[in-house]
Design goal:
Blueprint lengths: L1 E4 L4 H18 L3 E4 L14 H4 L9 H7 L5 H10 L5 E3 L16 E4 L12 H7 L8 H11 L4 E8 L15 H14 L3 E8 L2 H7 L7 E3 L9 H8 L3 E3 L4 H8 L7 E5 L26 E3 L3
Parallel strand pairs: 1-2, 1-4, 3-4, 5-6, 5-8, 6-7, 8-9, 9-10
Helix pairs in contact: 1-10, 9-10
Length: 299
């Protein structure tokens, strides 16, 4: 038995689900999801995958979660989880691909973010079938695609700008004005067709001021909010070109685009954090952006 801990918002859930499915498909072991985190950790709209996609999973039983893992609740359990980790509890401390996780035998509990396509790339076709949106995207969004994408010679480009929580963390504020300016220049130079930009952000006022997009070439998507925020990802996945932020949300919006000729522009650096020699987590973030995506300088 293997258990994969699921936590965080929709983008994080998708990475953890993809890792769990890859683990199951590669090893042949039975893999369960620990969804109990949503009972004690705040996370946007809670666990969303089963209501949005044609996912296949089994929820782990409480007794198995307790037997194999240690919940980070309270200072004592956090200390125990980090420095007196159960042999069965594997924590990803590096944030890059580690093939050894597929070789771990016996009952195991996996905790991590697993944010690299390398874990699940061999199963991409199967995953994209399971990660089909089954929820209703809404009449407004469907009409937008029909009206704009149906126009002769127009290609849609999704642009995601993440500001709110990113501004509070100097390591996260990566996608600067310079990044978006370069990305827009690059996409315009590559595309010979007329472009229309769908802009998604938690700060659309900033986008209107700084992206310098003409009114007739951009739509600022401001109606998918709260429990319907996932519809932004649905719209992103319907665009053939993408300018993403250092965000798992727009990462998946681009990855779920089925077009074989899609273009994805991503920040050259996913985080400004520098790994410290003796830190518990030694994240490098250098494998988050797939090799076939175009990396754009952020400075």
């Amino acid at each position: 038995m293997k258990i994969v801990r699921v936590s965080g918002g929709l983008g994080n859930q998708l990475f953890q689900y993809a890792f769990a499915r890859a683990l199951e498909l590669r090893t042949g072991d039975e893999v369960f999801l620990d969804l109990s985190t949503y009972g004690y950790e705040a996370a946007h709209n809670g666990f969303e995958l089963d209501g949005l996609f044609a996912v296949r999973y089994k929820a782990a039983a409480e007794k198995d979660i307790v037997r194999l893992g240690t919940r980070p609740q309270g200072s004592f359990s956090q200390l125990r989880r980090k420095y007196f980790t159960k042999r069965t509890h594997h924590i990803d401390r590096l944030f890059r691909y580690d093939s050894e996780v597929f070789s771990l035998k016996g009952d195991r509990y996996f905790e991590g973010w697993w944010q690299t396509e390398r874990y699940f790339a061999p199963y991409a076709d199967k995953l994209k079938e399971e990660l089909r949106f089954i929820a209703n995207p809404g009449a407004h969004n469907e009409a937008l695609l029909r009206d704009i994408a149906g126009a002769t010679g127009v290609d849609l480009v999704s642009v995601h700008v993440r500001r709110g929580d990113a501004l509070k963390n100097p390591d996260t504020w990566v996608c600067t004005d310079a990044y978006y300016r370069r990305a827009l220049e690059t996409i315009r130079a590559r595309e010979g067709r007329k472009l229309h930009f769908l802009v998604f952000s938690d700060d659309l006022a900033w986008c209107k001021e700084h992206l310098a997009l003409a009114p007739n070439e951009a739509t600022f998507v401001d109606w998918n909010r709260g429990a319907e925020s996932w519809r932004d990802m649905w719209l992103m996945s319907r665009c053939p070109s993408h300018i993403i932020a250092n965000s798992t949300f727009s990462w998946w919006g681009a990855w779920l685009d089925p077009s074989p000729s899609k273009i994805v522009l991503a920040p050259e650096r996913w985080s400004l954090a520098k790994p410290r020699p003796f830190a518990y987590y030694r994240y490098t973030f250098d494998e988050v952006v797939p090799e076939n995506w175009i990396r754009i300088p952020v400075e």
